[in-house]
Amino acid sequence: MPPREEGKVFSATYSNVPVYECFVDVNSVMRRRSDDWINATHILKVADFDKPTRTRILEREVQKGVHEKIQGGFGRFQGTWIPLSDGRALAEKHGVFDKLVAILDYVPGDRSPPPAPKHTVSAPSKPRANRQPVANRRVQGKPARAPTASQGDRYGALNTVAEEYDPRFAHEDTPDNATLASDLYADEYADASQYTNPRKRRRFEDMLSPQDEQHQLWAEELLDYFMLLESPSDPHAQPPMPPPGINLDRPIDDKGHTALHWAAAMGDLNVVKTLIERGASIDCLSKGGETPLMRAVNFTNSYDKQSMERLAGWLIRTVAYTEWFGSTVFHIIAASTSSKSKYACARYYIDTILNRMSEVFSPLEIERILNIQDRSGDTAITIAARNGARKCVRSLIGRNAAVDIPNNEGETADELIVQLNHRRRDGRHRQLSSSPFQLDPSIAGGNASHPQLHTLAGPHPSGPSSQRQRPS
């Protein structure tokens, strides 16, 4: 691949949309010529955030404002687009404004910038002769839908996959109506150490066995169903059935997620049930060691659909599994409470899974699972207490989760609960002091000067025979 001229603005056309484009390190940054909107995903890549961090920033900061999400068409063009003024603010906030000043401050003149290297502006992309886009390979009688800019919004955090597309593996002849699923699955087999070009891509496809081609086609159509249709509940939208004899435990994306991982994450009970009935393993692991149940609790779809009870019933045998960091399903749920907006979802997941566990596991086995420590030494209740998720702490203590297990820093859930109680007490005292009617502390209650409150955890244990702290 020829070297790019960094800091220089070029003109280009992707998916029939004219853009200004510049290159910083190995990253392409685009700004649309029609409305001056800029690709926020590109800005965050220049800031050198990893993929999960980019996704969190996009969800919590960028996508709360005016934005447009592009998922179909040319791979490098995909991402979250925002007004130029918001793009400038985003670049400044994350310390990359100076790197992007050329495209952020570029003022269009009478003459268009030179074409981007290895890019033909005028010639539209041509579809491959030997391969139909996924949207055109549907079962006859079912309407095909072309991807739009906003179709991914309904899936919330599942747009992670779209944001993770690496422009270094973009191929110049990608047809405009190729689906995101097609790009994702092709990347599963791409050699990450070299850039891909159309001829190499076609040679690779020619090398696939008939069984591989069959699996690839089904995987693309399944991802298309999950990500590009208007709604999985649309009466016209039917998931593709697995071909006979297909390996259902084979990954369908570049993170090693199987079809069951995706169906669980989407909270799609019909697809989950079909896959399990056809032999999909409920304990298949992604590259990060995640089970389908872990994948499900990473997202709110099963909360929105209130489908976790049935889903957990099918997958409960994997509840004791740990992923690469040593986290269980409960660690993952507890970690989600770092966002207060996830409190209700986390409580629902914890209570539902615990209830399902009680049907299968003994109380002692449930305690053992709840007390598993990750690589930081944290148990799930330690994380929930640290995040102030009081109701989640109550649920875990209700199943005898230990509060006295120290993590690698010597910190225990017990200490965090006491701190949480103090913060709550201090908040109440501040409210009380703002009133013109003050109560005498000696009258306000016997615990007015006690170092601990009982609002969350009850009486503090004084010895081995004491009851565990239990929220009221």
Summarize the structure.
Residues 110-156, 425-472 are annotated as: Disordered. The protein is mainly alpha-helical. It has helices at 40-46, 51-60, 84-93, 97-104, 160-163, 180-189, 198-207, 210-227, 259-266, 269-277, 292-297, 301-304, 308-315, 329-336, 343-358, 363-370, 380-386, 390-398, 413-433, 441-444; strands spanning 10-14, 17-24, 27-32, 38-39, 68-70, 79-82.
Topology:
Elements: E1 10-14, E2 17-24, E3 27-32, E4 38-39, H1 40-46, H2 51-60, E5 68-70, E6 79-82, H3 84-93, H4 97-104, H5 160-163, H6 180-189, H7 198-207, H8 210-227, H9 259-266, H10 269-277, H11 292-297, H12 301-304, H13 308-315, H14 329-336, H15 343-358, H16 363-370, H17 380-386, H18 390-398, H19 413-433, H20 441-444
Antiparallel strand pairs: 1-2, 2-3, 4-6, 5-6
Describe the structure.
This protein is 39% helix and 6% strand. By secondary structure, it is mainly alpha-helical. It has a domain at 1-120: Transcription regulator HTH, APSES-type DNA-binding domain (Mlu1-box Binding Protein, DNA-binding Domain), CATH 3.10.260. The strands form two sheets. The protein has a three-stranded antiparallel β-sheet. A three-stranded antiparallel β-sheet has the order 4-6-5. A hairpin with a 2-residue loop joins strand 1 (10-14) and strand 2. It is globular, with a radius of gyration of 26 Å. The relative contact order is 0.06.
